[in-house]
Fold:
Amino acid sequence: MRMWTRWSAWLCLSLMLWTAAVESTHHHASETDAASCSICVLAHSASPTVSSHADPVFAVIGLWQEEDVVAKAPLDFSELGIRGPPAVL
Ligand SMILES: [Zn+2]
Structure:
């Protein structure tokens, strides 16, 4: 990794951490200052709500059809060309 890439990564990381620390710990001397601060307005605003309630749509897109799988094993020795077990005569 090149040196400038490493330094720029550390610079961005440190700026992000300092910004997060300053935003979370800042305070205002008066209420009017807090009312005009975008961070405080956003922090104390109500969570957004969904205006329109969408009902879920359930539709069948396919059916699982299970089929029996039967393995067809050749048990006849003559088909494989293999000699069968010796028989006692
Ligand atoms: Zn503020």
